[in-house]
Amino acid sequence: MKNNPKITRIKLETDHEKDYIFFGIVCHEPDYKLSLALNRKMNISLKSGSQLTISQDNDSSYSFSRFSDSPSSPDLIYDLLSNRNGKYYLIKKLKNIDYIFRIYDPDHLTNTVQIISLIREIDCVSAVFKLIPEEIKDKNMQYITS
Q1: What is the model's pLDDT at position 146?
Q2: What local confidence, expressed as pLDDT, does residue 142 receive?
Q3: Among the CATH numbers 3.30.310, 3.40.50, 3.30.1710, 3.90.220, which is that of 16-145?
Q4: pTM
Q5: Rounded to the nearest 5 degrees, what angle is found at the Cα of 53, between the Cα atoms of 46 and 129?
Q6: pLDDT of the residue at 14
Q7: Residue 98 to residue 28: CA distance in whole angstroms
Q8: Nearest-5° angle of CA 91, CA 93, CA 56?
Q9: Which of 1, 6, 50, 80 has its CA 20 to 30 A from that of 127?
Q10: Torsion from C-alpha of 143, 70, 130, 85, nearest 10 degrees
């Protein structure tokens, strides 16, 4: 009888957080108007998707709107998340930010300076910032980085 060699499995850990680019957007318009403006300016197709629902410790939950676009290439995905729901915030540390614009770019081909420039050209946008998730200490960051 032949001795079968023992199979060793190696699990490779990937850091998907490094594949995301985050922008904070200050905008006085509702989410659907901002998504339409982003669609026109960036030539993407954000569509209303499933809401991001977060359950709190006291048995209450809050929903935040999400608009997503995954073009024909699965390597580039755009998400626009609302940071507010009435008086509640998705990321409490970012109370001045109305929306979080997330780009999944594992190939790192996105020019962040160009994206910021395009978003600043939108009339309803007051400000746009590049966010660094490692610097934001909030328990809800897990919902937007995964």
Answers
A1: 67
A2: 77
A3: 3.30.310
A4: 0.81
A5: 50
A6: 47
A7: 8
A8: 45
A9: 50
A10: -50
For residue 27, what are the β-bridge partners? 125
| Grouped pLDDT means (10 residues each) for the chain, 146 residues | 64 57 94 94 89 78 87 77 90 92 86 93 94 84 75
Nearest to 144 by CA among 22, 6, 4, 2: 22
Instruction: Tell me the angle at which helices 31-42 and 112-120 cross, rounded to the nearest 10 degrees.
Output: 120
> How far is it, in rounded angstroms, from Cα 26 to Cα 24?
7
Beta bridge partners of 111: none
Q: How far apart are CA 64 and CA 107, in angstroms?
A: 28
| CA distance linking residue 14 with residue 64, whole number of Å | 27
**pLDDT for 12:** 46
Residue 23 tokens read as 């922008």
Contact 119, 41 (CB under 8 A): yes
Sign of CA dihedral 32, 140, 15, 132: positive
Q: What pLDDT sits at residue 117?
A: 94
Can you tell me the distance from the alpha carbon of 4 to that of 120, in angstroms, rounded to the nearest whole number? Answer: 62
